[in-house]
Amino acid sequence: MPIDEKSVQATFERMKEKLAEFVPETELRAKAEIVHKINRLKKERNAVILGHNYMEPALYHTVADYVGDSLELSRKAAETDKDIIVFCGVRFMAETAKILSPEKTVLLPAKKAGCSLAESITAEDVRELKKRYPGVPVVSYVNTYADVKAESDYCCTSGNAVKLVQQLDSERVIFLPDEYLAGNVAKESGKKIVFPLKTAAGLRYPDPNLEYAMIGWNGRCEVHEQFTVEDIKNIRRQFPDVYILAHPECSPEVVEASDFSGSTSAMIKAVREVNASRYLLLTECSMGDNIAAENPNKEMLRLCSVRCPHMNEITLEDTLESLEKTQYVIEVPEDIRRRALRAVERMIAVV
Ligand code: 13P
Ligand code: SF4
Question: What pLDDT, in 10s, does the model give residues 225-235?
């Protein structure tokens, strides 16, 4: 079908108004044509596009029908009546959408788009933990693959982890795989946490007779583990009035030294609601641009040396190709999906 030049021009004007500060005009012009094609194809194919808060500004503000954090997008995936879900995020998010909506075609625009947390634990690791600590419920962060979710009793996101742990019937919980999120949840809910120790001879598991309330794992987010208390001190020295927001995948020390901690959407909401001279987000850099585009009167400081290589794999070009070629289709074996569904449904039920 020929390109409607008038509509492309109108798309370009809208993008320029919002994004001129972040994307050069020549690039915006080229992207406007891609945006136009995606939005046309999306209608033709009866597709919905879900965009995580970390998507690049030219995608986040143009083609996504819904944007949000992992929890909000999981809920959208469960509710949609469209035939196709294009997940502009990483693989574990697209898998979660497939677990919730098995009758839909779920597409991830990049072949891999992994996550260091999801890769830090296997289903076999979870089975070993369950053997060592029988009867202790397993809560897995949504940043895990479907086979790990299938071994878990509950899933959670950074948006509802504390609530979920506090609502459990059990005093004890195995919380996987993010060492730092687990540490932050333990701190907020006043629980003592222990971790398996990495030794030359392999993992040394905590004694099950120890006095503990949470058992964690040694996974870390390769992005958030890079922020340090020293960074915060330096920034505060230079900008004493800065308001610092840290994602709970940052270390408990970094969260403690910050002014606010919450999921990506909670951070966006906090910037909207808190009146400060300037803000610093300790999370993936694109989100700062997305917030700045929506709040032109708020000054955002950037730490853009820290990027998530996996989220950055998703581009407008790939999203178009994904719709054109129906790629990459996310499949979850039915027996794993059914077992994982229980944990994921429990996750989206916690408000
Ligand atoms: P949110 O659920 O807060 O969006 O976090 C997802 C994530 O991967 C952060 O690194
Ligand atoms: Fe995974 Fe970290 Fe990237 Fe989030 S930012 S997708 S936790 S690697």
Answer: 999 999 999 99
Q: Is the CB of 121 under 6 A from ligand 2?
A: no
DSSP 255-312: HHHSSEE--HHHHHHHHHHS--SEEEEES-THHHHHHHHH-TTSEEE--TT---TTGG
- How far apart CA 206 and CA 244 sit, in angstroms, is 35
- For residue 219, the cross-strand partners are 178
DSSP three-state, residue 98: helix
Short-list 344, 329, 286, 334, CA closest to 47 = 329
Distance CA 8, CA 283 (A): 33
The pair phi, psi for residue 303, each rounded to 5°, is -120, 75
CA 99 to CA 97: how far, in whole Å? 5
- Read off φ and ψ for residue 284, nearest 5 degrees: -60, 140
Question: Can you give the CATH number for the domain in which 240 is found?
Answer: 3.40.50.10800
Is 104 in the same domain as 135? Answer: no
How does pLDDT run across 279-326, given as a tens digit for each residue? 999 999 999 999 999 999 999 998 877 789 999 999 999 999 999 999
CA separation for the pair 108, 123 (Å, rounded): 23
DSSP strand pairing (260-261 vs 242-246):
parallel
Could you tell me if 174 and 244 lie in one domain? no
**Parent domain of 32:** 5-114+311-325
Q: Which atom of ligand 1 is nearest to the CA of 157?
A: 2
Q: Which two tokens stand for residue 145?
A: 């693959």
Confidence of residue 174 (pLDDT cuts 50, 70, 90): very high
Q: Give residue 92 CA to ligand 2 midpoint distance, Å.
A: 10
User: Are 290 and 315 in the same domain?
Assistant: no
Query: What is the C-alpha to C-alpha distance for residues 338 and 331, in angstroms, rounded to an integer?
Result: 13
**Residue 221 CA, closest ligand 2 atom number:** 2
Instruction: Name the nearest CA neighbour of 284 among 70, 23, 121, 106.
Output: 70
Determine if ligand 2 sits within 6 Å of the CB of residue 115.
yes
Number of domains in the chain: 3
